[in-house]
What does this fold into?
Amino acid sequence: MILLLIWILNAVALLVVAYVLPGIHVASFGSAMIAAIVLGLLNTLVKPVLTLLTLPITIVTLGLFLLVINALVFWMAGSILNGFQVDGFWWAVIGAIIYSVVSGFLSRLLVNGTETVA
It folds into this structure.
C-alpha cells in the first residue's frame, strides 16, 4: 500500500517539475505514472553502474558528479518515453534537483503522516 502511495507521489512530483520548468513536459497523469516507474527502475538498475564507473571523478569532485549522473538518468527517462520529455541536459539537471526535492518532501509527509496514524 505504501509503495503505491510513493509511486503516486513521485508522479505528482514529476507533474510539479513539468509545471515549474518550461523545458520539461509531461503529457498526462498517466504519463507521469509511467515516467515515475521508469525513473525508479533506472535509478535502481542503471544509476549504480554509472556511479561505480565514474567513481574516480566522483571522488575528485567530492560527490558533485552525482548531480550529473542524476541528470543523465532523468534525461534518459525523458528520451525513452513518449509522454515525458526533457528538452536538454541543463533542463535535466534542474529537473532532477527539483524532482528529488519535491519527491523527498512528499515522501517525508507520507512517512510522518503514517507514523502519527499508527
The longest helix spans residues 89-117. The beta strands are 24-26, 84-86. The first strand starts at residue 24 and ends at 26. The mean pLDDT is 92.
